[in-house]
Amino acid sequence: MADERKGHTNKKDHQLDQFRVDDKGKKLTTNQGLKVSEDEFSLKAGVRGPTLMEDFHFREKMTHFDHERIPERVVHARGFAAHGEFQLYESMRNVTKAKFLQDVTIKTPVFVRFSTVVGSRGSADTVRDVRGFATKFYTDEGNFDLVGNNIPVFFIQDGIKFPDMVHAIKPEPHNEIPQASSAHDTFWDFVANNQETAHMIMWLMSDRAIPRSFRMMEGFGVHTFRFVNEQGKAYFVKFHWKPTLGTHSLIWDEAHELAGRDPDFHRRDLWEAIENGYYPEFELGVQIINEEDEFAFDFDILDATKIWPEEDVPVRIIGKMTLNQNVDNVFAETEQVAFHPGHVVPGIDFTNDPLLQARLFSYTDTQLIRLGGPNFHEIPINRPVCPFRNNQRDGYHRQTINVGKVSYHKNSLAGNTPSEASVAEGGYQHYQEKVEGRKVQGRSKSFADHFSQATLFWNSISETEKMHIINAFRFELGKVKSKSVRQQVVDMFANVNLELAIAIAVDIGVVPPKSGGSNITKASPALSQQNTTFSAFSRSVAVIVTDGFHDADVKYVLSSLKASGLQPEIVSEKLGIITGMNGTQLEVDHANLTADSVLFDAVYMIRGSDRNKKFNKDIAYFIDEAFSHYKTIGATHEGIQWFEINDFDGKTGVVIANNMNTFAHEFIKEVAVHRHWNRQIV
C-alpha cells in the first residue's frame, strides 16, 4: 500500500518535459553552448593582475547571478507548489460548455501553488494567515486559473480598497515590523474603521488560519463566477476544494513553536507526502444558483465578504484533483508561475462582483513587473498545452520565433490569419448580460450588512473552536499598542456577539461593552471543523525507542501502522542503528536533539532497556508537550512507566496495552481523531 509507493515520483509525460534539463554527467558550457575550460579563475593580466573585461564567461556568469532574484510577490510571496491531474466524476455539460468539465475520461494536468499572504518569501509557514490555493488547469481549450484561498470570504468588497488593506496588514513602514503577522496597530486600526472586514476576521482568528498542512485545508474560489452552457444559459457558481483527509489545524502554541523548529513545516510536509506516495487529494465541488434566484437570499451573492451557506446551496462534488509530482525547480516553476482570475475557458465567465472586477486588471499588471514584460505566458510553467497564435510580437524575453511579415488584423497578405474562431469552433464569447445604469462611485445597499454572517460563523462552530477564537483575539489585540484601537475593535465585535466581545475585553485592558449582540440564530454546521472527515492516513508518528526493545512486538506495531497508511518515524538518542533484545535492528530517523513533538501527529513510546538519564529528561518533555497539544499518545512495554508516572493512564487519547493487536487497532483509531479536545491538561 502506502509503503509500496514510497519513493515513487510518478514521472510521466508532461507539457514541461521538453524544457527539463538534467546536467548530470554533462560538460559545462556558456548560455550560448560554448564549452568552458576554466570555471575557477577569471581571466587576468598576470596571476596577481586585474581581471580583464574580455572574460565573457565571467561577465555572463556574474551578470546572471546579479539578476537571479526577481521581485517577490507583494502578497502570497511565501509559496510552494506541485503538479497533478484533475478528473471529473460526472459530466457538467448541462450547466457549462467547458470541455474539461464535460468528459469524465479526460485527465487534465494541473499545477497548484499554496502560499501564505502577508509574509515575505523568507517568513515561516505556520503563521496565522490566510493561505492561497491557486490552481492552473492546462486544458485543451487554454489555461483556466482558479485563484483562491483557504477561506471562502475576503476582507473587503471593492478592489479599490485592496492596496489599503495590504498596506495595513504588511509590516509597519516606520520600522518594518512585524513580519508575517496581523498582530499590530495598523491592521487592527484598518479593521475597526472598515467594518466590512468583520466576517473575514472571524475566519482569520479561527483555526482555519493555522492549518495542519496544505493537504488538510479547504480551498475556495471566493468569488461568484458564471457557468454558461452550450445553449447560452448561465448559472451563478462558486468553486470549492475539499481535502479527502479532512480539514484540520494546528493549535496556536504549536504553530508558534513550529515557526522556530521548522519554518518550512508546510512545504516540507507537501514535498515529503508526494515523494513517499501519499498523494494529496482534493475533491472539486460547486455551488450553483439559477439566474432567476439571484435575489432570493438574505445576502448579496456577489458580495465577496459573504458565503453561500452549504445548507441553503449544497456543494455538488464533481471531480477529484490528485497532486502526484513535485516540482523540479522551485524558481522556474513555483516562483515564475503566473496566475490570473481572467484566464478562463469557454463556459466559465465573470460576474459583477466588484472585487473580482478589480482582480481582472490587477493580476496582469502585477505579472508585467514581476516577470519582466508581456511574454510571461511563454515561460514553460505558464505555457498552455494547446497552441497559441496571435499578432502580439516582441517585448522582453520573447521566445516564439514568428515567421512571415504579417502581424496585424485584418490582413490580406496572410489570408487574414490568424483569424477569429466562431463560437461553434470554440471561440470564447462573453456572456451577454444586460447592463444599464448611471456612472457612479458607490456600492449597492445589498452590500451593507457586515455582521450577520460573522455571527453565523460564530453560531456554527464548537465550544473549543470558540475558545480558540477568543484566545486569538486576545493575543492579536494584546500586541496592539493603541488602547483606542483595542477599544474600537471590541466595540465593533460586540455587533457579532456580545459575550465574545466581553471575553476579549477582559484580557486586553479595555472597557467591556454593555450593549450589542445579534439576533441572528441561524447556524451552518458545515463551517465547523468538528464536522470534517477524520482519517489516520499519512499521519506521522514519533516512535520513541532505544536499544533492548521487544523485537516481535515492535515489528508488529510498526507494520500495522504502515499498513494503515501512517508514517512511523524512529526517534532515539542519536542517529544510527538500535538493536532489539533478539537482534532486530532499526535505523533511527531522528535524534532527539533534532526531533520535537510538534513535528508529529502522535507519539508511540516503547523505550527499551536503556536508562540514559539525560535522554529520559528530554523524552519526558517530548511526551508532556504532545499531551498538552491534545495529540494521541501510546505506550507499550517499558514505555508504560512514563505514562504511569505522569498519570496519563485513562485520559482521552492515551492508549496503553500489552496486547499488541489491541494496541495497534486502538492507537490507529485514536490518531484519526486528530485532537482530543476534552482532555484535561495535567
TrEMBL record:
It catalyses: 2 H2O2 = O2 + 2 H2O. GO terms for molecular function: catalase activity; heme binding; metal ion binding. Keywords: Heme, Hydrogen peroxide, Iron, Metal-binding, Oxidoreductase, Peroxidase. Residues 29-417 form the Catalase core domain. GO terms for biological process: hydrogen peroxide catabolic process; response to oxidative stress. Coiled coil: none annotated. Heme binds at R73, R113, F162, R359, Y363, R370. SUPFAM superfamilies: Class I glutamine amidotransferase-like, Heme-dependent catalase-like. Residues 1-24 are annotated as: Disordered. Decomposes hydrogen peroxide into water and oxygen; serves to protect cells from the toxic effects of hydrogen peroxide. This is Catalase. It comes from Gracilibacillus thailandensis. The lineage of its organism: Bacteria, Bacillati, Bacillota, Bacilli, Bacillales.
